[in-house]
Amino acid sequence: MVTRLLQPGQVLVGKWQKNSYRILQPLGQGANGEVYLAQSIMDKQEVALKISSNSHEIAGEWRLLRQLSAVSHALPKPIELDDAQHAPLYFYSMERIAGQPLTKVHQHLRQTEIDRLFAAYLQVLHEFHQAGFAFSDVKPENLLVESGTDGRLQARVVDIGGVSAFGRSVRQYTPTSDRAYFGLGTRSADAMYDLVGLSLVFLQLQQPLPVHRMGRVEDRQRYVFTALQLMPKTRRKTVIDAILHGQVQSAATALSLFHSAKSNKKRQTMPKPARQKKSMATSPSPRSKKKKWDWTERLMWFSLTTAAIATLAAWTVFLL
Fold first, then answer.
1. What's the pTM?
2. Which Pfam families did the record assign (predicted)?
3. How big, in percent rounded to 5, are the helix, strand and coil portions of the chain?
4. pLDDT per residue over 95-107, tens digit each?
């Protein structure tokens, strides 16, 4: 049984800001703490709380969230940092993202919609990279899909606990989206680490990873390139293929390739009408068309012939 820092129904009171939050339910748990859905007692708004017993980790994440949320709107907006009043706990509150994990919604999406989400996540990674950081822990649970006010799908990301400055070792990772686990590179924070991780996530959306057959690096690599071949011919496949073959080195280049790639839409053309072959039975020519005689026509010609014969006989007798 998982032991949690807080239970639903408890009220967390801030020591310095004096704001109170009622815990509604747990949202997730990581190496740096736990995340809860909570309601502000003051304005009844729902928020997400990141809580930990490590003040240093919470303070570091808070600073990073404030820095990166200023350059990427995909992250939740930070609200406040505080200590718990009646317990040795430290927390910060942030925007509650009302989205669903990518793994839960992709089955209901068209291939073009999944393509657009892939490009949107590339844009998020580009924003992180421009600031000098790798998101690092690119796993499906951290990639949320939210419906915007205009009805369009928006790419959001959560959990910055694994964010690492370029050149550092990756702090947190998930094996199924870890470049090193698949033998495709090192476990160091750089742009390619994120790009490979995102590619692996989207590969596994189409072809689930057979975990029981992933014992060797060779097996994992075989899975990657087999799954790539089985992907539908879409714009994201073009980009993922280039990433996994080392032809793309940055999110900016990946985005450029995505927008220049063409999806596999077959052109709709009107079928040419089939040429009809002329048939003697169905379309007889005038020469081959045999005239049909009915009984009245036969009687008429018989009468005329008889009359002619009779007249000729009469003239013969008269002349003799």
1. 0.80
2. Pkinase
3. 40, 20, 40
4. 999 899 999 999 9
